[in-house]
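Inputs:
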Amino acid sequence: MHEEKKAHGFSRRGMIRAAPFVPLAAISAAAPAAESAFSPSQLRLIEALVDRLIPSDESGPGARECGVAVYIGRSFGGALSGEKTAFTAGLAATDALARGRHGAAFAELDAAKKDELLTSMENNEAAGFAPDSRTFFNRVRQLTLEGMFGDPFYGGNRGFAGWDLIRYPGPRMAVSADDQKLREPIKPLRTSAHGGRHGG
Amino acid sequence: MAVRMKPVDVAVIGLGGAGGVAVLPLARAGLKIAALEAGTWIDPRSFRPDEIHNNVRGWPSSVQKANREVPTVRRSPASPTLPRAAVHPMMNAVGGTTLHYWAQSWRLNPWDFQPLTKARERYGPGAIPVGSTLEDWPLTYDELEPYYDLVEREIGVSGKAGNVQGTLDPKGNVYEGPRQREYPMPPLRSTGFTEHMAQAAKQLAWKPFRPPAAINSEEYQGRPACVFHGYCSRGGCHISAKNSTAVTTIPEALKTKNLTVFDRAHVTRIATGADGRVTGVHYLRNGTEHFQPARVVLLGSYTYENTRLLLLSQSKAWPRGLSNNHGQVGKHYFGHWVSYGAGGVLGLFPFDLNVWYGTPAQGMVVDEWADDNYDHTGLGFIGGSNLHVFNEMHPIQAAGMDTFGRAPAWGSRWKAFVRENAARWNAAHIQTSSFPYEDNFLDLDPAVRDPLGDPVCRITCGPKENELRAVEFAQKKMEQWYLAAGAIQVVRRPMSPPGVSTHAYGGTRMGDNAGTNVVNRWGFSHEAPNLGVLGASVMGTSGARNPTLTVQALSWRTAEHLVKNWKSIAA
């Protein structure tokens, strides 16, 4: 295995250094935090961002409809709490950018203006971000993928729409040779790895 | 005052892939062993088919001791330190990273043990990479073969032999060194995708075969066969069909009652006497200092921590660090040049590959371009690459695909692209022979410290012409393979030099010359005779394949040597 996760600009290190020793069993048993870490206005901004990254269209429901903002809010209330300050600063910088260029909060703009701002963030041409706008854009994009295509247990991928979109047939505890044939679609199994139907 | 533990014959630091094997021959011989492991026992029922749990959040590695000691990386002594990795790629646990690894259990090629002699013979002295500190290993493939054979049976490896005592079988790897017998289990079953790739390889006149794996293809020693559920990479096995040392050699050693496992034991120093001999191990457990006296210490943490612990263990007898009077600790370090993912070769196909399930070792490989299996005249490099395609794809990973220049990275056009193609791409795994160099090394970082205030390990590892050329050559072969299999597009991404790696070698290299090697041919220190070192830190070359089985064969051999020479080593 060879992935080398690079630090993404948000100080995971600070969190890790400060973390007390936690027994593994406690981590394993921990359910995701039920509450969002963000205020209603922050959540509205997150919804507006993820809605442009994966819009609702003829391909199916988008990130907003699939609960991606719920996934992100819960993540920062739990596993990503050490990164929350940096992420919140990125949200504030996004709104500051929107107000500076178009005189309104990001969520209030029309789709074309939102896309224009996202494009300049992606191209690292937007000021006011630490360390830079591309880092924040990439973080939002990665979290959007996680919420859209991760297990619904964590609050996103509502109705398994993310898995339906890419034809992922779902986790199952045993896989036969027939389930591993080239070209042949497998009947999807729509359950969470944590049991039950989540995200409905 | 430290808690003084009852003296033992052998203290083993780290109970992972290496230490977890070494304890078995020691325990069977009746030696009393204290194993000091920074992690805990992990309940197999806590492993889940959940990408966020295993891969995104890195459970359980993310809460480990190792994660607070992630090494720093720079490309040369004059270069700035790169952004530090957020997560250590290895984990602390009883069984270590063998709990969640890909379990590819390769023997090295005979060439990998004698590259200096063999390359000079075939291509002349100019073939040796400039600036390299390459040496032949102090042992040959044939000397290690009995230990490969033994470990394959003790832990359980599935595979198909290609060379049994000189008789070749093209269903296996005809380029491998001679084996005394067949694998203990047949190879993992192939899939629609791997069979398709095998047919394409045959069209190219290559000889594809299924790679060996420490994963049960059938019931083995009371543990069930793999169910191919597709969450093996960075996920532990909930049915113990993956043969980590936690379910194989460690339980066997515990049966003898000669092994005591101390989990959550955070080793801080190796203790020595005025004569320089090792006397035991200092560790923290539950916030309390402990001292474990031992007549022999086997250091079996990971490559980075092996070097760090030796350098930190300074004393009057060892002013530069334990076993470092020749200044060789940390030298001859190299990461494996593994071309995969963002620095690898990707293929896009016009049909669904259905690689969601299975495990990476359930793959198809070719060795035509590995080691010295082809004529390198005029190529400008020595060594070669194993080309590997495989199963197991997770949904976030699939949707996070490279868009092959055909779509933007977000929005409706992106969504339509992944709808069509997320099930239709594949990333090859290419491992290339990697070598040690004068200016690639490990030392202690002068600025970055762990929570105890000790410096972390610092990696200095820059680009090398030999490896860059070898990787490019292999990537072109891989492109050829994907195109032969019907890929509509292939991208090749140039590879950066390895950083913090799961395939990290050297730092305590094994060799007969005490001036250039830390341990002797048996794995014991040239300078501190009752200190042994286990792990890929003793290896002087990587070969073109995963290190674990070689590490385990060497660990068994070091432990057996200790048993046979107990009186002289323990003095």
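DSSP finds eight helices and no strands in chain A. Flag for discussion at group meeting.
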